[in-house]
Amino acid sequence: MIIKNNKDIKNMFLVSSIVKDLLLYVSKYIKPGISTGYINDKCHNKIVNYYKAYPAVLGYMNYPKSICTSINNVVCHGIPSYNCILKNGDIVNIDISIFKNKYYSDSSKMFFVGTPNINVLKLCTVTYNSIFYALKYVKNNNKINLIGENIQNYVENYGYSVVKNYCGHGIGKKLHEFPQILHYKNNYNLRMKTGMIFTIEPMVNLGNNKTYIDEDGWTVKTKDNSLSAQYEHTILVTKNGYKILTL
Ligand code: MF3
Ligand code: CO
Fold it and tell me: Low-confidence residues of the chain, pLDDT below 70?
């Protein structure tokens, strides 16, 4: 397990502030008629030219774009495209991973295209709140599987399901570090330690939690075509709790 020192943490707060800015920056492009390809290009240019940073997913295992854009029944890893036009009522997760000064940060959130209906609003709210419900258990020496257990309990209480095929991850000098952060009940016998940094990024479905990967080799969709929501934060474990780097 990798414990971050003060220099690591300072740098990760810095790169996280870029991710936060970008998630705010993209919000003005989320409207009917805009393509996810266009949003990708706006983000890419801002990352490279303005922040002098690198979009961590571009080229990652040959991933072809600079962000992930996952619409409606897409669970995660949606590839931005000029043919994919946002329409009124869509929900879209924008996932941004940045590399700068030798460190990574990773965050994502849902955006509403036009006005969301009440069911969509509830799915997204519950998904977001599940992170905070689990965060109550994040502190030095607590078992790491308290995160997954509490996320699963929280979302199932609302009749939703939590995706098991994808997980959160340690993050720092690599985008994906040990340990994996499962979002469901598990027997992983590991304790959180002060100075650990990892993501929590639950994917929550309106229907069941079965997923499949599209022909493009990346786009993960719900098997039953139901809506899926995801939020992601990069989290530092502290002695008495946590700090959210991407809040
Ligand atoms: N931000 C995503 C994560 O949580 C990136 C997945 S890798 C991708 O790690 F290449 F599929 F985008
Ligand atoms: Co992540």
Answer: none
